[in-house]
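can u do me a favor
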């Protein structure tokens, strides 16, 4: 198989896995965002919520029930359009970049080391994140309930007109501090876990392990990577869900001083569920689809 064909196959496999994961897991992303944002009074009224900030303190189940009660079951998929606009090409671009980097930087006769794996995953995610950040901003605003945009294109145009390019790239540093370490750590944990799984089965004379075992490795890798990077996710959501010129540092300090350190864990349960399942599903589907395309 040529490198060109390999990269095109990689993009298709990544896009397919990204689509399936996004359609299935969008409700968890919305619940996470709702737990982390500051709900404005107009948005609270629109969602049928009290106009104080008590809604921020609600847990995952309560937030789920509130959304279903006041916005119907379809409200759980609010923000699906920007999510698909970001995740489908984003996952494809990430896997393609990761494959290209590994093919060009790591000798073919060996697998990448742990440090190389961490660096490759982080760099590939950084490039993807920077390319698609404007859609990420719009996605966060759709999910927050604080903005009533009619379409992804309309939202991008509105942000560009009212806030300029700074608005389209709000929360850039917080997003990079979240996504680059997450992807690097996830790729490291997943690759090492998969390697140990392969060695375990080979030692017992088994040719291949079951897909659910690979999925379990992905879940564990996602949980560990989420736990390390979650505070940056809270800061990123705050920055992107409001029209504000504040910096990542000033928002982090404000959260710590006015709401306490526990606020940096807000939305952790839905995020760790979504990112763990999403990453495990994406990598499992990616490996499966790629193996069929490559035949």
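np, heres the sequence
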């Amino acid at each position: 198989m040529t490198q060109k064909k390999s990269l095109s196959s990689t993009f298709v496999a990544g896009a397919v896995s990204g689509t399936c994961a996004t359609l299935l897991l969008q409700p968890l992303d919305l619940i996470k965002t709702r737990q982390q944002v500051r709900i404005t009074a107009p948005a609270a009224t629109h969602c049928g919520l009290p106009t104080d900030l008590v809604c921020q303190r609600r847990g995952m189940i309560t937030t789920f029930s509130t959304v279903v009660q006041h916005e119907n079951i379809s409200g759980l998929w609010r923000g699906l359009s920007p999510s698909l606009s970001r995740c489908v090409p984003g996952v494809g671009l990430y896997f393609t970049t990761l494959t290209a980097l590994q093919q060009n930087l790591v000798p073919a006769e060996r697998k990448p080391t742990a440090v190389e794996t961490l660096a490759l995953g982080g760099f590939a995610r950084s490039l993807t994140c920077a390319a698609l950040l404007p859609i990420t901003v719009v996605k966060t605003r759709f999910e927050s309930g604080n903005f009533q945009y009619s379409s992804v294109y309309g939202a991008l145009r509105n942000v560009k007109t009212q806030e300029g390019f700074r608005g389209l790239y709000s929360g850039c540093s917080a997003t990079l501090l979240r996504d680059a370490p997450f992807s690097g750590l996830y790729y490291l944990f997943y690759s090492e876990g998969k390697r140990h799984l392969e060695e375990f089965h080979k030692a017992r004379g088994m040719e291949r392990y079951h897909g659910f075992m690979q999925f379990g490795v992905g879940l564990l890798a996602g949980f560990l990577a989420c736990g390390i990077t979650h505070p940056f996710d809270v800061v990123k959501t705050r920055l992107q869900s409001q029209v504000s010129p504040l910096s990542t540092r000033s928002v982090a300090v404000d959260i710590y001083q006015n709401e306490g350190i526990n606020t940096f864990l807000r939305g952790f349960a839905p995020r760790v569920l979504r990112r763990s399942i999403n990453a495990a599903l994406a990598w499992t589907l990616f490996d499966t689809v790629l193996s069929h395309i490559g035949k």
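Residues 1-5, 43-55 have pLDDT under 50 and may be disordered. hope that helps!!
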